[in-house]
Amino acid sequence: MFDNLIADLRAAQEDRVLEKSMGLWRVFLRMETPAIVCYRFGHWVAGMKTPVIRQLLGIVAGVFQRLVQIFVGVYISSDAEIGPGLVIHTPYGIIVGPNKIGANCTIQNGVVIAAGTRGIGENVYFGSGAKVMGGAKIGNNVVVAANSLVLTDVPDNMTVLGVPARIRIPGGRPKRFKWQTVKQEGGPGANSKEPVAPQNGNQHSQPQAESAKAR
Known about the structure:
By secondary structure, this protein is an alpha/beta fold. Helices cover 29% and strands 20% of the residues. The strands form four sheets. A six-stranded mixed beta sheet has the order 3-6-8-10-12-13. A five-stranded parallel beta sheet has the order 1-4-7-9-11. Strands 2-5 form a two-stranded parallel sheet. Helix 1 (2-15) runs antiparallel to helix 3 (33-46) and helix 3 (33-46) packs antiparallel against helix 4. The N and C termini lie far apart (51 Å). Mean pLDDT is 80; it is low at 181-193 and 197-215.
């Protein structure tokens, strides 16, 4: 739970220059942060195996969820499986059912991801008012434009828009950092989630520049 939550906060920090320069504590002042914490806590409680404690914490998680719904206007099912790097840019009118969603998902206000989708890939951006209904499946690096209604499958690296979303523009969302487990110094088991930038074709440009200066 804590690794994913820290990844969520860092992803929110990366999206805003002010918060990136002032530290993670600035992210806690955002209205959307309680919704992220509520989901991560509720999902963790739902997966507990210890009886009695699970029931007691379940009551706390249920009350927390209702308060978030009332004051923040965000409902994310505790049964949803969402990867690290979840970002909610603006609150109110957000409903996410028990779906499987990959890492680096960004959600704007008014987004509804109904239950029953066949999966949402990594690095997907939902614009304001976007809706995903039925048994649609969304690939990786996809942008769902504002007020679009997705009823059919969307392939990787695509931008879709319309009601229903029939207009498809190749390109999609640029790849962001990828969260993976990195082993740190300090003995076995000292692992943490860290962002790793995706590889690109310019990865050898820096060594070539340095060799040119040496000449």
